[in-house]
Design goal:
Elements (H helix, E strand, L loop, with lengths): L1 H25 L4 E8 L3 E12 L4 E9 L8 E2 L8 E10 L6 E13 L5 E13 L49
Antiparallel strand pairs: 1-2, 2-5, 3-4, 3-6, 6-7
């Protein structure tokens, strides 16, 4: 019984993989990517596929390849019906830390059988660009209060020099004879 389940699983996996390679080579616009920024902390990524043939006893995982690196989060496609052509959706919430423009150039689909003995890759070209905005900072800015130590109504008075013998010695006044 186990060998028959394994053989059915591998066979359906092989058929699904070959259909994916054939269909997505002809239909380049059959995959839609949706990026949604959530509260500027995380990003919700949705992968919408048309006519994805899901294996009978297996599952499909996807990865996105960027211009810089690859997201390590796996997108597991949800099964709609057994072994039927249907539109599938995979969504995942990912933390994109870099403030940059992400250019998605490839969707990597991996078809797994029930026991994970066989993994078949399908690389699909995708052209999508997403700008990741900076995270918003919530700063509590308080208004500065003006100190009331010096009243603002009065003009500043000039400093007066100290009265004394040394400072006021022989000030010139009109009528003084300065020839000595």
């Amino acid at each position: 019984i186990i060998t028959s389940l394994a053989s059915i699983s591998v066979l359906s996996n092989l058929i699904s993989w070959s259909w994916c390679k054939y269909y997505y080579k002809k239909h380049t616009n059959a995959i839609t990517l949706v990026f949604e920024s959530q509260r500027n902390v995380t990003t919700k990524i949705q992968i919408l596929t048309k006519s994805l043939l899901y294996p009978i006893l297996g599952f499909v995982k996807g990865y996105l390849a960027y211009n810089t690196s690859e997201i390590k989060t796996a997108f597991t496609f949800k099964r709609q019906r057994f072994f039927s052509l249907s539109d599938n959706k995979a969504e995942e919430i990912v933390s994109l830390d870099e403030i940059t423009t992400y250019k998605v150039h490839q969707l990597r689909l991996y078809f797994y059988d029930l026991f994970r003995m066989v993994q078949l890759p399908a690389f699909i070209k995708v052209d999508y660009t997403y700008y990741n905005p900076p995270k918003s900072l919530h700063l509590n800015i308080e208004e500065a209060e003006i100190s009331n130590s010096n009243p603002t109504d009065e003009k500043n008075k000039l400093k007066k020099t100290n009265e004394g013998d040394y400072l006021n010695y022989k000030n010139y006044e009109s009528g003084h004879d300065i020839r000595r």
